[in-house]
Amino acid sequence: MPITALQIAGPSAIVSWIIAMALISVIMLTYSELSAMFPVAGGVTRFPQYSHGSFTSYTVGWITWLGVAAVPPIEVLATLQYSSSYIDGLFREEAGTPVLTTTGIIVSVALMGLYTVVNILGVRWFARINNVMVWWKLTTVALMALALMAVSFDGDVLTSSDTGGFTPFGYGAVFAAVSSGGLIFTLMGARQAVELAAETTKPKVNIPFALIGSIVICGVILIGLQIAVAGSIPRDVLTSNGWSNLFVNDDIGPLAGLAGALGLVWLVVIIRVDAVISPLDTGLIYAASAARLSYAQGRNGNAPQWLTLLNKRGVPWTSMLLMFGVGCLFFLPLPSWQQLAAFITTATVLAFGAGPVVMGALRRQLPEQERPFKIPGGDVVPVLALLAASFIVYWAGWSTNMRVFLAVGVGYLVLVLHYRFARDRSHIPPLQLREGAWILIWFGGLALISWLGTYGGGLGVLNGPASSVALVVLTVISYAVGQTIRLTASEVNHNIERQRIVDTNAPKVSL
């Protein structure tokens, strides 16, 4: 990830991290208020159900599920990239990017199968040690940064003219790295505090701290690693290859290669161990989460009832099989880590972009509702949060966004088929398409601006200032429509009560 960011933006990737932290923090502020007010499981899909109804909830749920289901494949890719020094033929170079070969795809499918089988068998101790794994990851990153700083850091290469200066690819690359360099993808790990809000005992304190605190702590550590890596690249490598073609013993993985080139053999061992442990843990957890999301959609009536089938261990095995099938499909159009990371970033930010609109609407719908944690400033923060989400999606580029919006279109086709051919219509809630108009306006506008923009294969019709103005106008219109066309207070209360009944009657799920 630090190497990828350097390839996109050079040393100015350090600034990209600061921008990413600021944008994600303002989005998560809205969820701090929502999750403290309604500490429920899976809040990212349930809050839109409260304020704008089933269509909005389904849209957010579908995109959320796509983003989560794409994480196990990206962890498989991370594992294989570090395994490629032991196993030949897993990757080939395409336009300077390692992509899976046929053999690589077969091995990837096998690893996805491992994630699926372990989860179906109900091996839950992976979930129990997840907190330990989080601290392992943070400690490893901090140790890498300190070791590189101590051994070979040369701050001059960050600004030296013979290495391209601090912004070798211009300021546009700084923004591109935010979405395409894996920065947002990494920081969005804070989302788990929203999904697991029901398990906290002090939502007023714990949820805001978990959301904003985790972004700040992880961001500071990762900025340290980014600076350490950038300042540790040998000068001769930069003068001969440049930032965009970094190649430091890449056959054993970029970070391990850098550590090896600097003689840090012990660090190479730690990085290689982490390259297996961290993706395995993350892939297993997100595979379980993806199955839980599709199970919940089935329970809410927005997906077929066969997704709610449980085995004797309480695992939604049909949802797990769906995750496996869709996860494997990601290897075909998105066969590299960077492409998958960009896809997940756009999908996740689109889903979480609903939070600002929902927060503003619920303030108008339920003004007397107790809000243990309330963001001051009226509509200022939610509008800025929706604008932040708009920019993150735009910077991902048209080549990525095109795939995401096509996937959204597939989701709507699935929804139409579900409403048309469902056998038991008693489980299906009213669609409430009118109240979901704002999200169609926002998605449609983002797709158009991205297509006309300058990032990731866009037409280049809208330059930097023009695209920024267009995004601001789109954000204000989308937010205003979301506040104007919303459910009534009685409908909101009905949805909240309906969700409570669904939770009460739902079988116990063990993941």
Structural category:
mainly alpha
Calculate the mean pLDDT score and round it.
86
Number of helices: 23
| Low-confidence runs | none
SSE series: HHHHHEEHHHHHHHHHHHHHHHHHH
End-to-end separation in angstroms reads 29 Å
User: What's the Cα radius of gyration?
Assistant: 22 Å
Main sheet characteristics? 2 strands, antiparallel
Shape verdict: globular
Strand line-up in the sheet with most strands: 1-2
What is the number of beta strands?
Answer: 2
In short:
By secondary structure, the chain is an all-alpha fold. It has helices spanning 2-9, 13-37, 43-52, 54-69, 71-83, 102-120, 125-128, 130-152, 171-180, 183-187, 192-195, 203-232, 235-241, 254-261, 265-300, 317-329, 337-352, 354-365, 380-396, 398-421, 437-452, 464-484, 489-505, and strands spanning 91-94, 97-100. Helix 2 (13-37) packs antiparallel against helix 12 and helix 5 (71-83) packs antiparallel against helix 17.
Task: Describe the model.
α3 runs antiparallel to α23 (489-505) and α4 (54-69) packs antiparallel against α15. The chain has a two-stranded antiparallel ribbon. With 511 residues, it is mainly α. It has helices at residues 2-9, 13-37, 43-52, 54-69, 71-83, 102-120, 125-128, 130-152, 171-180, 183-187, 192-195, 203-232, 235-241, 254-261, 265-300, 317-329, 337-352, 354-365, 380-396, 398-421, 437-452, 464-484, 489-505, and strands at residues 91-94, 97-100. The protein is globular, with a radius of gyration of 22 Å. A hairpin with a 2-residue loop joins β1 (91-94) and β2.
